[in-house]
Amino acid sequence: MIKVGILGATGYTGFELLSIFARHAEVEVSFATSGTYAGQRYSDVYPCPYDLTLIAPEEAPLGEVDVAFLCTPHGASALLAKQVLDAGARCVDLSADFRLRDLATYESWYAPHPAPELLPQAVYGLTEVYRAQIAGAELVANPGCYPTGPLLALYPLLIAGAVVRGERIIIDAKSGVSGAGAKPTVTTHFCSVHDNFSAYKPGHTHRHAPEIEQELTAYGGQPWRVVFTPHLLPVSRGILSTIYVSLDPAWSQAQVLEAWNVAYGQEPFVHVLPAGQLATLAHAVNTNRCVLSVASAGVPGEWIIVTSLDNLVKGAAGAAVQNMNVMFGLDETLGLIA
Q: What string of DSSP letters covers 113-169?
């Protein structure tokens, strides 16, 4: 039985982790921390069947678990990761602290890094791409929710050399409100979101843009620039991404689908829709599934890719558990819904 600890357990991703672990046959939750609700039962914070008592972060017995999940803010996670590793446990970080490999890039988008010495050993946790590295990792950086769908869609096309070099890739993404976290703000309050639809941090101002570009560059062997605009949907969960990309004019829709099916035909959590179907939120919410679909833009070489996933599952907690399963040599699907 694998003993796990959850730091920052009362956010949406922490709740999702507990829900997954409740049906995971090989996991025992040893502790869950909360800086706000320490001393209370989890079921007193959320109406749920999880009756474990929350403890303060500084009281977490890190040396008594096999792996710790960090559902904590950027900056705070890096210091906690160092403590986890020093205690002899493995770590899956759901913040952005280890997603960017380049220190200068991280610090230009966030703040001075609290533990830069750990960056070289962190493995980017896009399971379908980095499975072999994740298997031996002590520290896994879980991908951001927005990057996951576009990266899975573009990876097989980039490694095949199908994407036209020098062309920008445009990503128009829409997320449910849970992606903004449990703490409400003026823009995420029910009264602001209900019956509304809004864009934010457009073009190249959202922190997920350099993460996407880092991975596309790794896959395609040259720098790639994206135009990335996220939107806030008046729904609780799910991400739908519409990607506008130029491919070699010789490529057909059938070739795109074949490239995806070759790359992901044996993957339990990547589903490729046939020609004529486009991904919707309903294809993916409440599962660890990422759904891929493609349509012609009506001009040779121009294609529209639509992906969907659940931002709290495949975009966060589900991917984290999938990575944990790989790290410990378990059936990758344990606890997860495909």
A: -S-GGGGGGEEE--HHHHHHHHHT-SEEEPPPHHHHHHHHHHHHHHHTT-BPTT--E
Q: Please identify, in words, the CATH class of the domain defined by 2-143+315-327.
A: alpha beta
> 233 by DSSP, 3-state: which?
coil
Q: Pick from 181, 311, 184: which is nearest to 241 by CA?
A: 311
Chain-centroid distance of CA 116 in Å reads: 22
Of the chain, the end-to-end C-alpha distance in Å amounts to: 23
Question: Is 290 noted as a catalytic residue in this protein?
Answer: no
Other CB atoms within 10 A of residue 205 CB? 12
Positions of the chain with pLDDT under 50:
none
Whose tokens are 């996933």? That residue is 309
Helix (H, G, I), strand (E, B) or coil at 218: helix
Residue ranges covered by each domain of the chain: 2-143+315-327, 146-311
- The H or E element spanning position 19 is helix 12-21
Which amino acid would we find at residue 185?
T
Kindly report whether the global pTM for this prediction surpasses the value 0.85: yes
- 67, 2 in Cβ contact below 8 A? yes
Tens digits of residue pLDDT in 94-114 = 999 999 999 999 999 999 999
User: Which pLDDT tens digit goes with each residue over 38-91?
Assistant: 999 999 999 999 989 999 999 999 999 999 999 999 999 999 999 999 999 999
Question: How many other C-beta atoms can be found within 10 angstroms of the C-beta atom of residue 186?
Answer: 7
Which residue in 48, 71, 91, 145 is the catalytic one?
A: 145
CA gap 308, 305 in Å, rounded: 10
CATH 3.30.360.10 fits 146-311, yes or no: yes
How large is the C-alpha radius of gyration of the chain?
A: 19
Residue 169 CA, chain-centre distance (Å), reads 20
Question: Which helix (H) or strand (E) segment is 216 a member of?
Answer: helix 208-220
Within 10 angstroms of residue 198's Cβ, the number of other Cβ atoms is 13
